[in-house]
Specification:
This protein has about 100 residues and is α/β, with parallel strands linked by helices. The chain has 2 helices and 4 strands; from the N terminus they run E-H-E-H-E-E. The protein has a 4-stranded parallel sheet with strand order 2-1-3-4, with helices on both faces. Helix 1 links the parallel strand 1 and strand 2. The chain starts with 6 loop residues before the first strand and ends in an 8-residue tail after the last strand.
Length: about 100
């Protein structure tokens, strides 16, 4: 289990290359610990309930969890995590991604 000063994180994206890039970036941060990854919405919900992350980084265009809040409930928390908040990531930007 991570020390209390570390932020535990679940990465959710259906593209392995994106998960690998986020993994590389986040591993360089001493106060962030990646506790799980998922490629689908179903996997994300299972992993979230197992590892209970503090933060869920979520592909905003993941079909199973698309829309405001992704897999979060009406209170903004992911079910079974003890209060994890989700942050949706989108590939759209100035370059037209």
């Amino acid at each position: 289990m991570a020390p209390t000063n570390e932020i535990t994180c679940l990465i959710v994206d259906d593209h392995e290359v994106v998960r690998a890039g986020l993994r590389t970036l986040l591993r360089a941060e001493p106060d962030i610990q990646i506790v799980a990854e998922a490629a689908t919405g179903g996997q994300a919900l299972i992993q979230a309930s197992k590892v209970r992350p503090q933060l869920v980084l979520l592909d905003a265009r993941l079909p199973e969890l698309a829309g405001p809040g992704g897999g979060a409930g009406p209170d903004g928390e992911w079910p079974g995590t003890g209060g994890a908040r989700g942050t949706q990531l989108s590939g759209r930007g100035a370059a037209g991604g």
